[in-house]
Write a structure and sequence with these properties.
With 518 residues, the protein is an alpha+beta fold. The protein has 3 domains: 64 residues, no CATH class; 193 residues, 3-Layer(aba) Sandwich (D-Maltodextrin-Binding Protein, domain 2), CATH 3.40.190.10; 224 residues, Periplasmic binding protein-like II (D-Maltodextrin-Binding Protein, domain 2). Helices cover 43% and strands 12% of the residues. It has a 4-stranded mixed beta sheet. Strands 11-6-12 form a 3-stranded antiparallel beta sheet. Strand 13 and strand 14 form a beta hairpin. Helix 12 packs across helix 22 and helix 20 runs antiparallel to helix 21. The longest helix has 20 residues.
Length: 518
């Protein structure tokens, strides 16, 4: 009550009230003792200035008591166990007493999106959770952007690979931040390259074609005994039916490198089947998306010189591990799986080939596939992790603020979190960088520019780190539905021999129908 009364009163009133008391002069006799008046006026002025400072600064002395609150944060993650974040959580709680507890829950990948959607709809979902880089169109309405006081779009632009800003920053608001970004790279079997006399991995698709031809071995009856490259089929085939892992991402990469504009940002529609301004429509030319589709599917065409894949092959990842495939394109998460299942495989990893001609002209681009930490827009006050054992529960606005402060602490350099309520307890604590520790311990390609620079010296991670600097993606209304559409396009051309231009146009129309339903 005292704080409220103090803040509510006019400081001039308090000055006039305290002045006679301090001077010990009855109000009706204030005309006396003129010799001491100048000193006492100075004191009165000081009191006035002090009271004004308290008033106009928001009465911070009393507000500290009024705005003391606590919140509990719950994080939903994928792939990583809770011990991966235990140190970061422990160190952060030492710096921020307003966060009473932070709990991390590892979710099942298969049911994650549905579980997340249901939990958020009920108002009892997580405070912080992972979102895929393609989910902004689908789930943006559920996300709370970072308050400007925590971080802004320029912070992300300066600190992270460009693809992060393109995916997670809209209207100058930050909606998510990643610990890691993954992009495609070329996996190859060094022993097969040595045997074929190929001294270095292909840097362009022309070199890739030549390497695939030299590496592929076809038996007497037309069966492929060694595939030069896992290319040409979709990713929706059954076990043992030539399924190529991440086939649709590889096709998207080829489209981007060919110059296709995957999305018309001005009009808000998919445009990967269209001609671009640099490729005007004519009978002698085809849209860049069509060229990419034809290029990809030629590897499963028995009539092509690059024929290296069919439905008799195992899943592309299994085939590579078994030593039956010499090259494939995939992400960094495969490294520990390959090392575990095939420890003697002479593994090589290189940047993805680029669409560059002999004169160096072309588009250098990679394709990104990754997750970022976001904050839920709303949460019910009755949610267990907010009210349980918390005397002064935070408002939703305060909860969002504290959740974003932790995301910033987890992903940004240490200097970004110097304004936490408590200073670091030691020099080591002040320098502690959760993102750097995560990249090193989990052996994952970094999202931050400074950490990417460090990883360029890592034999296995360097290709992914380099790819992150030129990585791109595109807005999708539903990533799973779009993947199915792209798989259908591949199958229509590779298996059903349909017209590629018509197939591409049908695929684009199908994606745009999904966008219109949003």
């Amino acid at each position: 009550m005292l704080g409220t009364f103090w803040c509510g009163a006019n400081p001039i009133f308090w000055c006039l009230y305290l002045f006679p008391i301090y001077c010990k002069i009855p109000i009706e006799k204030t005309y006396q003792v003129k010799t001491n008046m100048s000193k006492k006026i100075s004191v009165a002025v000081s009191l006035f200035l002090l009271s004004s400072l308290v008033f106009f600064s928001g009465c911070s002395i009393f507000r500290t008591q009024q705005t003391t609150y606590q919140t509990k944060l719950e994080i939903w993650g994928l792939f990583d166990d809770s011990d991966v974040f235990s140190k970061a959580i422990s160190e952060y709680r030492k710096r921020n007493p307003r966060v009473a507890d932070i709990k991390y829950k590892k979710m099942e990948v298969e049911s994650y999106e549905n579980d997340l959607r249901d939990a958020l709809a009920s108002g009892k979902g997580p405070d912080i959770f992972l979102v895929h880089d393609s989910w902004m169109m689908k789930h943006k309405d559920k996300l709370a952007p970072s308050p400007d006081a925590v971080l802004g779009s320029k912070n992300v632009q300066d600190m992270f690979a460009d693809v992060v800003s393109r995916d997670f920053v809209q209207d100058s608001k930050v909606y998510a931040l990643p610990l890691s970004v993954d992009s495609l790279a070329l996996y190859y079997n060094r022993d097969y390259f040595n045997q074929a006399g190929i001294s270095s991995p292909p840097r362009t698709w022309v070199e890739f074609d030549a390497a695939a031809q030299r590496l592929t071995r076809i038996g007497t009856y037309g069966n492929i005994t060694l595939s030069g490259a896992a290319m040409g089929a979709s990713s929706d085939a059954g076990a043992g039916e030539g399924k190529i892992n991440r086939a649709t991402d590889v096709l998207t990469l080829l489209m981007m490198q060919a110059g296709a504009e995957m999305f018309d940002y001005k009009n808000g529609f998919a445009s990967f089947a269209n001609f671009t301004p640099s490729t005007l429509e004519s009978e002698s030319r085809m849209p860049p998306g069509q060229m990419a589709l034809l290029y990809y599917t030629k590897f499963s065409n028995p009539g092509s010189n690059n024929y290296s894949w069919n439905s008799q092959m195992h899943n592309s990842v299994d085939s590579f591990i078994e030593g039956k495939t010499a090259m494939m394109l995939n992400y960094s998460w495969l490294i520990p799986k390959i090392q575990s299942k095939a420890p003697k495989l002479n593994l090589g990893i290189a940047p993805v080939p680029q669409n560059i001609d002999s004169e160096g002209r072309g588009v250098n681009v990679d394709f990104a596939n990754y997750w970022g930490f976001a904050v839920s827009k709303n949460k019910s006050e009755e949610a267990e992790n907010i009210t349980e054992k918390v005397e002064n529960p935070a408002t939703n606005e305060q909860r969002v603020f504290e959740a974003w402060q932790f995301v910033r602490y987890l992903t940004m350099p240490p200097g970004a979190s110097q304004n936490l309520p408590k200073a670091a307890s030691s020099e080591d604590a002040a320098k502690y960088d959760p993102a750097a520790e995560y990249a090193l311990a989990q052996k994952k390609p970094a999202a931050r520019r400074d950490l990417i620079g460090i990883q360029t010296n890592d034999t296995l991670l360097a290709p992914f780190a380099q790819g992150n600097m030129i990585a791109a993606s595109w807005p999708q209304p539903d990533d799973l539905a779009v993947e199915k559409i792209f798989n259908e396009m591949i199958d229509d051309v590779a298996l059903r021999n349909e017209d590629p231009r018509a197939v591409l146009k049908q695929g684009q129309n199908a994606v745009n129908l999904l966008i219109q339903k949003k």
